[in-house]
Specification:
The protein is an all-alpha fold. It has helices spanning about 1-10, 20-65, 75, 85-105, 105-110, 115-150, 155-165, 165-195, 205-225, 230-245. It is built from ten helices and no strands.
Length: about 240
């Protein structure tokens, strides 16, 4: 939740700015509202809707970059591999999380328990190759921005210069959709964990909604009082999963 809220803020402004704060709080409020109203059912419906939009936007952006001749080996391999850079650090975090995520990731686990074992196994296998393709393609846009950026130029500014205003609007929309998809899943799964599975509270709708609100408030506190670095935020879940192991 922390990392996804940070992504939204970065899209709309510098950390601490008015647009940054309004974007984070606004998205948090909208996501919390429809999660409270629909719970896991709403999360499942929005996941499908959000995925369809994301795939359409991603395909459109990749077509634009290919037609424009921006995706070349020179752009993809523009920077040497250095272990202290954010990319290799994220790779190390990923190597840690592939062993721990299946035990705590809300999307994988709660969705899996809704189906029989065979259906769950097939869905995980198909989700693996679909997500790998999406991550590689979407990540290539960031690499493209890095390859063509001027000194001190932000990623959004580079992509807007290369692709134009409308594609960048779609790019930002895809990031917002992806963040919302994770946030609503986290809220519904947190409510299920605290109220239904662990029975810290009586299993009522009101208690489930209270848990959702509490987790969202905690996420916002981390955003506004904690580290503003996105790479650190991503590493938080890996560190927490070590504790779970």
């Amino acid at each position: 939740m922390f990392a996804n809220l940070l992504v939204i803020g970065i899209l709309f402004g510098a950390a601490g700015s008015g647009s940054y704060t309004m974007a984070v709080v606004g998205l948090a409020a909208v996501t919390l509202l429809y999660s409270m109203l629909g719970g896991l059912h709403a999360s499942l419906r929005t996941d499908l809707f959000q995925m369809l939009i994301f795939v359409f936007v991603l395909a459109f952006l990749m077509i634009l970059t290919v037609i424009g001749g921006h995706i070349t080996f020179e752009n993809i391999l523009f920077k040497p591999f250095q272990i202290e850079q954010p990319g290799p650090v994220l790779m190390l975090v990923a190597l840690l999380q592939i062993w721990s995520y299946p035990m705590h990731d809300p999307v994988m686990m709660d969705r899996g328990f809704l189906a029989d074992r065979q259906t769950t196994r097939r869905s995980f296998l198909h989700a693996a190759w679909v997500s790998m393709i999406c991550i590689l393609l979407f990540g290539s846009l960031g690499i493209l921005a890095g390859a063509q950026a001027n000194a001190g130029e932000a990623m959004n500014a580079v992509l807007m210069r290369i692709l134009g205003d409308l594609p960048m609007l779609l790019f930002n929309a895809a990031l917002v959709i992806s963040a919302m998809s994770t946030l609503d899943s986290t809220l519904s799964s947190s409510a299920k964990l605290m109220v239904v599975d662990m029975r810290f509270l009586q299993p009522t709708l009101m208690n489930g909604r209270m848990v959702m609100a509490l987790f969202m408030v905690l996420g916002l506190l981390l955003v506004f009082t904690g580290n503003k670095d996105l790479f650190s935020a991503v590493a938080v879940s890996g560190t927490a999963s070590m504790y779970l192991v």
